[in-house]
Structures are given as C-alpha cells and as structure tokens.
# Entry
Amino acid sequence: MNGTPNTADVVVVGSGIVGLGAAYAAVRRGLRVIVVDRTEAPVGATIRNFGHLCIGAQGGEARRYADVSRALWLRLAKDAGFWLRESGTLVAARHDDEIAVLEAASREGGIRLLEADELLRLAPLRADGLVGGAHIEVDLQTDPRTAATAIVRHLASLGVEFRFRTAVTAVGAGRVETTRGPIGCGSVVVAVNHDIDQLLPEVAERHGIARCALDMMRAAVSFRHPLAAPLLTGWSLVRYGRFADGVEATVLRERLHAERPDLAAIDLNQMYTQLPDGTLIIGDSHATAVAPAPFQPEAAFTAFLAEAEALFDAPAPRVQEGWRGANARGPREFLIARGDDGVLVLAATTGIGMTTGLGLAEENLAAAFGWTAAMEGTS
# Structure
C-alpha cells in the first residue's frame, strides 16, 4: 500500500488494548497503520480496570497470550514511559480450603506460598482470621488511566495514525467505511470489544457475545504501609483458570456461595490494587446481558466497602469515585474470527483483556497475515 491519506496496510477498528496491540504488532513490521475509534481517546474497558496484569493465574490459551503480553508490556513501559511494576500478586487466604487451592496451583511453579506473618509485612491486613497466602511471581501492575494514553502517544511517534471521533459503519475486503470517508487497506482488524454487535451483529450472535457490566470504585485509604502488590482473595481463586478448574476450587466455591449468597449474587471478585497516588481500586461485581441496565446497584458498593473494612487493618475507605465498566462476555475466553472477506475480529471475552490483549493481537495477526512472529522492526 502507498502512503496516501486514505490508504493503509492495516486498519484497526478500536483503540482499546487489543486494538493498540494490533497497531503495535503492525507498525513494528514497518507497515502503515490507521486506528479508527468513535471516541476521542481510549475510554472503555482498557481504562476502567484494576491495572492488574494477572498473568500467573491464567491457564491454557490465556496463559500463552498472557506470557507474550508480559514481554510486550515491559517493552512498551520502557519505550512509552509509563508506570509499570514487576510486583507479582498477593493472595490472602482466610480459610483452609483457600490454602488447598493455592497449594494445588503452586505445584506448577511460579507461586510461592506465604505464612500469615510474611503476608502481613506485605499487605496491611487484619491478622485475625488470616491463615496464610501466596505470591504469584510473574504478575505486573500498571495505572490503566495513564498507560493507554502513553501507548497511543508512543504508537503515534512510530507512525501510527489515529483517527478519533470517527465511527466505522462497515468493513470488508480492502475497505473500511467511516463517517469521515472510506479508507482503502490491505488488512482489517476489528477490536471493538463488547460493541462487536453494533458493527458485526452476525459475528456477535454466532459466537454468543454479550456484555458484562461491572461496578468498581476508587477510595482513599490510611494504610500503615502500602500494598506491595495487587491483592486477591478466595473470591478471585474461583474465577481464574489456573485455580478455578480443580476439585479444590469446587469445594471453595460451594462454601463461599453457601456462606455469602449476597456476594455470590453480585458475582464478586474481591480484589484490590493501590495506585501510585496511594488510592485503592476496589471491586468488582459482574452482571451479564446483551444490554445491561445502566443503573448501578447500591448493594455492590456497600459490599465492596464492608468487605474492605473487614479485610484491612485500617479505617474505613473513603470513596472518591465509582464507575460502571463493561466488557465482552462469551462462552469461550476469546473471540477470534476471520471471515471470507479477510477481516480479523479479536476480543478477550472473560474480562482478562489487559492481561492477554497484547499477546492476543500479536499472535493472531502474525498467524492471519503470515508474519514472522519474532520479527521486530521499529522500536
């Protein structure tokens, strides 16, 4: 393709983390890339999350993408200049069945079991009821609100053209129709997350894609010392692939749901990340529908605060912000589809986009377009 204003080698629809990963994969191979997004900056799931890159808790295909993503995150943080730390992840266990899940997962390596005293030195938790925990060693943490903006800026410096406030109305072989005119191209990547049903409804229906609405909050806290890493609990262990598929997790899930049906009803993932400014991201709840209601249930926020107060040895958190996010949800962990027109559609469909999205884009673009996976190009 030549470099005229309305042509590109690759057009990426969507500027979330998967779309940014696709643009990064293409520009590093010396290709002309245009990213089109109807918003004026990344505003979706890519900024409405914990900033927790939960690599070591994944299994199977998700772990493979997460491992690729990890290397790309480290490289991007250095080149684009945003905050990222190789913190690992802490897990607080308050029951013997949670220890059993962690022990089973630790046999694969990369997870170090912790005694309660060591965990208390790493996280300002209440000692009463704490029986131990673990450290997942490979995980990373970033600030999602600043990372996405920095990646956009870095990709633009490499030559990626961003066309924000521009909606895509149709995609096909060699052509993308937008509200600012058509773009001719060699390849098209659609990475619009839960909005796939608005652009390609037949793809969404065929793959059973719906929306998962989730509630989160950010609070000021007065900890005696900061969290050394993102913090998971037993409610997290029944969600992530490496932990959730064993018989130990079945026992844990049954107990949690029997003891706290109220938390099970909001599909809680009780986890925490502390940002560089000291505030704490708390969450999250989950509700799946084709079009979730826009109203946020007060029960979720009440539960977040009550559970945080019970877990941490600190005064009650002081809420600064609350928000409702959304991500694609489907029967499989990923949506990977390529039609007869050659359009490649990618999405993480279980809420692990920040963890796996860069690797999902890197591997699937290389496979779809016949690129050499190890090819580096511009840095």
Remarks:
- Residues 60-80 form the longest helix (21 residues).
- The chain has two domains: 7-70+143-208+331-369, 89-138+210-329.
